C-alpha cells in the first residue's frame, strides 16, 4: 500500500490533482483502476484523500474492496482512512454496514466520526430511500464529462434522461455525507447547524440545507456557515469549509482566512479551507496561500499549492472541476 517516502513536487501534486478529477468524471471501470493505482503510487496524503473521495463520488461498487482495505489499514493516515469511510458511505451498499460499525469506535476521532456518519446515512437511506440529490451525482458526472468532450450539456442531459422527466436534486455536483434537512426558516436551520450537542448526522443535514438555501437567503446563510467554523469537531468544520468552497462566496473569505491562520487547527480543516479559498479565488487570500505553500504541514502545503493553481480557472474547468 505504501509508496515511496519522497515528497511530491508542487507541479506533480497539481497535475495529479487534476487527473483525479478527470478520472472521477469518467465514472467507468478503467477510471476506478487508474485512481487506485494513483493512490498506491503516491505518498501524498492530499492526493490519496482526493483519490478516495473521487471513488466515492463515482458511486461504483467495484471501488468498495479497495476502500475497505484503506479503512482497515491502521498504518494509513487518519485523513485518508476517514475519506475511505466517507466514500464507502457515499456508495451506499447495505453490506458495508458491518465494516463501518467495526470502525465506529476507532481511536482516530476523524475515522470514528466518519463511520458513525456513514452508518447514519445508510440507515436513513434504507428507511427513507435515496432522495433525488443522492440519485443524481453519478449521472451529473457523466454529463460534465460529455460537456468537456464538446457535447452540448443540454444534448447530453436529454440523452441521459431518455427525454423523460427527472426529479431535481441539489444544484451541487457532490454526493453529500447526509441529505439536506427539510426546508425550514434559516434561524431554525442555523440553530441546528451550531448545536454541538445534536447528533452529527442531523447537524450535517442542517449544513446542506443551509447551503441549498443560499440562493434564497443570501449572505445570511453564508455567514451562518462561517459561524460553524468555530465548532469543536474537526470533521464537521472540514465539511463546512468544503461547502463554503462549493458556494464560492467572497463573504466567507474573512472567516476562512481566520481558520487557515490558526496554527492549532486540525490539518484536515486547514487543508479544506485552503481549497475553499482557491475555489473562491479572492485576491486578499492569494498572498496568504503563497505563504502557506511552503508550510511544514504537508497536506496544508500541498493544498495551498493546488489552491494557487485554482486561480488559473481554465485549467480546472478543462478538467471538469467547477471553481
Automatic annotation (TrEMBL):
<dbReference type="InterPro" id="IPR016024">
    <property type="entry name" value="ARM-type_fold"/>
</dbReference>
<comment type="function">
    <text>Catalyzes the hydroxylation of the N(6)-(4-aminobutyl)-L-lysine intermediate to form hypusine, an essential post-translational modification only found in mature eIF-5A factor.</text>
</comment>
<feature type="binding site">
    <location>
        <position position="271"/>
    </location>
    <ligand>
        <name>Fe cation 2</name>
    </ligand>
</feature>
<keyword id="KW-0479">Metal-binding</keyword>
<comment type="pathway">
    <text>Protein modification; eIF5A hypusination.</text>
</comment>
<dbReference type="InterPro" id="IPR027517">
    <property type="entry name" value="Deoxyhypusine_hydroxylase"/>
</dbReference>
<feature type="binding site">
    <location>
        <position position="239"/>
    </location>
    <ligand>
        <name>Fe cation 2</name>
    </ligand>
</feature>
<feature type="binding site">
    <location>
        <position position="83"/>
    </location>
    <ligand>
        <name>Fe cation 1</name>
    </ligand>
</feature>
<comment type="similarity">
    <text>Belongs to the deoxyhypusine hydroxylase family.</text>
</comment>
<dbReference type="GO" id="GO:0019135">
    <property type="term" value="F:deoxyhypusine monooxygenase activity"/>
</dbReference>
<dbReference type="Pfam" id="PF13646">
    <property type="entry name" value="HEAT_2"/>
</dbReference>
<keyword id="KW-0503">Monooxygenase</keyword>
<feature type="binding site">
    <location>
        <position position="49"/>
    </location>
    <ligand>
        <name>Fe cation 1</name>
    </ligand>
</feature>
<keyword id="KW-0677">Repeat</keyword>
<keyword id="KW-0386">Hypusine biosynthesis</keyword>
<protein>
    <recommendedName>
        <fullName>Deoxyhypusine hydroxylase</fullName>
        <ecNumber>1.14.99.29</ecNumber>
    </recommendedName>
</protein>
<feature type="binding site">
    <location>
        <position position="238"/>
    </location>
    <ligand>
        <name>Fe cation 2</name>
    </ligand>
</feature>
<keyword id="KW-0560">Oxidoreductase</keyword>
<feature type="region of interest" description="Disordered">
    <location>
        <begin position="151"/>
        <end position="174"/>
    </location>
</feature>
<feature type="binding site">
    <location>
        <position position="272"/>
    </location>
    <ligand>
        <name>Fe cation 2</name>
    </ligand>
</feature>
<feature type="binding site">
    <location>
        <position position="82"/>
    </location>
    <ligand>
        <name>Fe cation 1</name>
    </ligand>
</feature>
<keyword id="KW-0408">Iron</keyword>
<dbReference type="InterPro" id="IPR004155">
    <property type="entry name" value="PBS_lyase_HEAT"/>
</dbReference>
<dbReference type="GO" id="GO:0046872">
    <property type="term" value="F:metal ion binding"/>
</dbReference>
<dbReference type="InterPro" id="IPR011989">
    <property type="entry name" value="ARM-like"/>
</dbReference>
<feature type="binding site">
    <location>
        <position position="50"/>
    </location>
    <ligand>
        <name>Fe cation 1</name>
    </ligand>
</feature>
Amino acid at each position: 500500500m505504501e509508496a515511496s517516502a519522497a515528497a511530491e513536487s508542487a507541479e506533480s501534486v497539481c497535475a495529479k490533482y487534476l487527473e483525479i478529477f478527470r478520472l472521477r468524471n469518467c465514472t467507468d471501470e478503467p477510471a476506478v483502476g487508474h485512481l487506485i493505482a494513483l493512490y498506491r503510487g503516491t505518498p501524498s496524503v492530499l492526493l490519496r484523500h482526493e483519490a478516495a473521495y473521487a471513488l466515492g463520488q463515482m458511486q461504483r461498487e467495484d471501488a468498495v474492496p479497495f476502500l475497505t482495505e484503506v479503512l482497515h489499514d491502521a498504518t494509513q493516515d487518519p485523513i485518508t482512512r476517514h475519506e475511505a469511510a466517507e466514500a464507502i458511505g457515499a456508495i451506499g451498499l447495505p453490506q458495508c454496514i458491518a465494516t463501518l460499525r467495526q470502525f465506529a469506535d476507532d481511536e482516530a476521532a476523524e475515522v470514528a466520526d466518519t463511520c458513525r456518519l456513514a452508518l447514519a446515512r445508510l440507515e436513513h437511506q434504507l428507511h427513507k430511500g435515496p432522495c433525488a440529490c443522492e440519485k443524481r451525482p453519478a449521472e451529473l458526472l457523466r454529463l460534465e464529462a460529455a460537456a468537456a468532450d464538446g457535447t452540448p450539456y443540454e444534448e447530453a442531459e436529454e440523452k441521459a434522461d431518455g427525454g423523460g422527466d427527472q426529479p431535481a436534486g441539489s444544484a451541487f455536483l457532490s454526493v453529500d455525507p447526509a441529505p439536506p434537512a427539510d426546508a425550514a426558516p434559516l434561524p431554525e436551520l442555523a440553530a441546528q447547524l451550531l448545536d454541538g450537542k445534536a447528533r452529527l448526522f442531523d447537524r450535517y443535514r442542517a449544513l446542506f440545507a443551509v447551503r441549498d438555501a443560499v440562493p434564497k437567503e443570501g449572505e445570511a446563510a453564508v455567514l451562518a456557515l462561517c459561524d460553524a467554523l468555530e465548532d469543536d469537531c474537526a470533521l464537521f468544520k472540514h465539511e463546512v469549509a468544503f461547502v463554503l468552497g462549493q458556494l464560492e462566496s467572497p463573504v466567507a473569505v474573512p472567516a476562512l482566512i481566520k481558520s487557515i491562520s490558526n496554527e492549532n487547527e486540525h490539518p484536515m480543516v486547514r487543508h479544506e479551507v485552503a481549497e475553499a479559498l482557491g475555489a473562491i479565488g479572492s485576491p486578499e487570500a492569494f498572498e496568504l496561500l503563497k505563504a502557506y505553500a511552503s508550510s511544514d504541514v504537508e497536506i496544508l502545503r500541498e493544498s495551498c499549492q493546488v489552491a494557487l493553481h485554482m486561480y488559473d480557472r481554465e485549467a480546472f474547468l478543462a478538467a471538469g472541476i467547477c471553481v
